[in-house]
Design goal:
72% of the residues lie in helices and 0% in strands. The longest helix has 43 residues.
């Protein structure tokens, strides 16, 4: 009985320690959400709903202004980069997971290794690499591709996001039971037809990978400093849009938060709150889409 009591006491102590540690770990998260929400809602209430459509205010003035161009820029760069990311990620993950020959297995192995390596890369290095690549192309081929542009931002984001989406899809393809694979191929399905069936089987994971890709895209900052660069004006939707800088919410937060002007700092809270709402929405969507098959 005495030994049982000691074990119960140890169990209660450990449970208490784990609970306290969990609470301490959650405190910074709740503080972050509360700070962004309180400050963001306070500023939004001063110019609602125009704050989501107006442009940057005159620095140091009493104008509240808005974050309209940055919301539009975020939507544009995301809507273009995500389809490109999905195509590359699906093709690469299918090739790596459905490899049949020895050559395909070797290529798949190194593709997987390269993708996991890119996940660990600092994104600012990827931004610098894209900047240097465009500079080299301009010199070698005597062309004039702007290094600060929507095109450069898309290229950097695709390189950053592909490894995440690729890993999600490949891991999901690996969960397909062997008897389903054997059944599909035993019915005489071609590799293209089999791939289509397998992708339908992991449809919830595909939806979740899209959400992950979108979340990773809208939250990136460092790489865009050397590529998209940022702009305080609404993007002009013409044939030259890919060759001009474009603003995003993350770049707006970075630039406004570092400024000495109170009205710009206020806008950084609004941009942060908007990004927080988008992130929470994507998180909930990802959880819903990831439920079962």
């Amino acid at each position: 009985m005495e030994g049982l009591s000691i074990r119960k006491l140890r169990s209660y102590i450990m449970i208490s320690l784990i609970s306290m540690t969990s609470i301490l770990a959650l405190i910074p998260i709740f503080h972050l959400i509360a700070s962004v929400t309180l400050n963001g809602v306070n500023i939004i209430s001063k110019n609602f709903p125009n704050i989501f459509f107006d442009v940057r205010p005159i620095p140091g003035s009493k104008e509240v202004g808005g974050i309209g161009p940055y919301i539009v820029g975020t939507l544009i760069i995301t809507s273009i980069s995500i389809p490109i990311t999905l195509v590359i990620s699906i093709l690469a993950s299918v090739y790596a997971s459905e490899a049949l020959s020895r050559f395909e297995r070797v290529v798949g192995k190194y593709t997987r290794l390269f993708a996991h390596m890119l996940i660990e890369f600092p994104t600012i290095i990827i931004g610098l690499t894209v900047y240097g690549l465009l500079t080299s192309i301009n010199i070698l081929f005597n062309v004039n591709i702007p290094r600060f542009s929507l095109l450069a931002g898309i290229l950097a984001l695709v390189i950053i996001v592909v490894p995440y989406v690729y890993s999600q899809i490949e891991d999901s393809l690996k969960t397909i039971p062997s008897h389903i694979r054997e059944a599909v191929y035993s019915l005489g399905a071609t590799r293209i037809k089999a791939t289509y069936i397998f992708l339908r089987y992991i449809k919830p994971a595909l939806y979740a990978s899209v959400v992950i890709g979108v979340f990773r895209t809208i939250s990136e900052t460092a790489a865009l400093l050397f590529t998209a660069f940022g702009s305080d004006h609404y993007p002009i939707l013409d044939s030259q849009i890919f060759f001009r800088p474009i603003g995003t919410l993350t770049l707006a937060i970075y630039n406004f938060a570092l400024s000495p002007y109170d009205n710009w700092i206020d806008l950084s809270w609004v941009a942060a709150f908007t990004l927080l709402i988008m992130a929470i929405t994507l998180f909930i969507t990802s959880k819903i889409l990831s439920r079962g098959r």
